[in-house]
Task: inverse folding
């Protein structure tokens, strides 16, 4: 009995044809089947039993070899799509690179044309949008006038969209001209209103200052008159007191003269001296008191005038640096009342 039931080399010589042809393995299977049919098993001897096992092993080996050939064929076939795809990819990338290389000048030209046309169109769009932009941002008439000049003197070559650019310029100049007239009128009205406001403010300020000055002068005059009147009243009161004291002294002297007749001359002289001394002392006291009050009033009035002068100078200084008169008065009053820490007015 041969080692193999079929010729494996014949199958391996052209496995693709054998396995892809319908019933392509039948000839080889027929060889095995013929061997099976002709095999006569002998179970009576040990040799016969060994032959049965050997023959079964040959069948199993034929099965394994045929299956292995088919498995290897399938693996090789499955690798082929990968090789095909790799080659397709290589060819595709190579040809696409050549295509890009050949087309590069045209592509570069087309991109440059797109950029050029986009830049030109952007300038046209900029001209179209300019009136609305200037109006939205509240541009002055001077700026609008400069933009009109720029558009009018624009020498840029708009090439194939020159007609569109000319139309955009025409419309923009018309809109800007109308906007310029509108803004100029608004500027004139604004300047007029500002001038009127400044004039009214100056007039109101002058009226306030005149009123404050008149009130201050009237108060100073009234205070001075009141002080003089008070001093005169105190003086008259002092004179009346001196007169009353003199009359009381005379009455006392007369009564003393009546009671003391023995020492009439001495009493009269003593009474006269006492009277003169009392009158003089009272007059001196009254005069000193009146003078003291007058001096105190004069010092008070002088101090008040001095403080008023210092306050006025401080007020003028605050107004000079841009603080309003009312705010300046409030600041000085707060400082004088010690309402602002670490700040005082040196009188």
Result:
């Amino acid at each position: 009995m041969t080692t193999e039931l079929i010729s494996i080399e014949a199958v391996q010589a052209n496995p693709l044809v054998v396995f892809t042809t319908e019933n392509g393995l039948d000839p080889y299977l027929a060889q095995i089947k013929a061997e099976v049919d002709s095999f006569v098993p002998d179970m009576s001897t040990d040799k016969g039993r060994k032959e049965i096992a050997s023959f079964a092993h040959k069948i199993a080996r034929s099965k394994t070899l045929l299956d292995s050939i088919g498995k290897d064929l399938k693996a090789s076939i499955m690798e082929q799509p990968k090789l095909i795809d790799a080659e397709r990819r290589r060819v595709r990338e190579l040809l696409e690179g050549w295509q890009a290389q050949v087309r590069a000048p045209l592509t570069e030209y087309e991109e440059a044309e797109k950029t050029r046309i986009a830049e030109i169109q952007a300038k046209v769009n900029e001209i179209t949008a300019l009136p609305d932009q200037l109006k939205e941002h509240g541009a002055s008439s001077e700026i609008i006038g400069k933009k009109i000049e720029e558009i009018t003197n624009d020498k840029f070559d708009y090439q194939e969209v020159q007609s569109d650019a000319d139309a955009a310029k025409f419309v923009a100049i018309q809109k800007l001209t109308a906007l310029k007239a509108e803004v100029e009128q608004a500027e004139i009205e604004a300047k007029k209103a500002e001038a009127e406001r400044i004039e009214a403010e100056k007039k109101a300020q002058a009226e306030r200052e005149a009123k404050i000055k008149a009130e201050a002068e009237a108060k100073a005059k009234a205070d001075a008159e009141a002080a003089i009147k008070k001093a005169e009243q105190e003086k008259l009161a002092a004179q009346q007191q001196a007169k009353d004291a003199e009359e009381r002294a005379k009455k006392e002297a007369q009564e003393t003269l009546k009671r003391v007749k023995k020492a009439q001359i001495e009493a009269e002289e003593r009474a006269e001296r006492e009277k003169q001394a009392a009158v003089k002392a009272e007059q001196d006291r009254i005069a000193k008191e009146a003078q003291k009050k007058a001096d105190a009033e004069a010092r008070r009035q002088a101090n008040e005038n001095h403080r008023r002068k210092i306050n006025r100078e401080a007020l003028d200084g605050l107004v000079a640096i841009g603080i309003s008169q009312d705010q300046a008065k409030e600041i000085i009053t707060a400082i004088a009342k010690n309402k602002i820490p670490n700040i005082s007015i040196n009188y």
In short: The two ends are 146 Å apart (CA to CA). The mean pLDDT is 85. Helices lie at 8-13, 15-20, 26-38, 46-136, 141-152, 162-259, 264-320, 325-336.
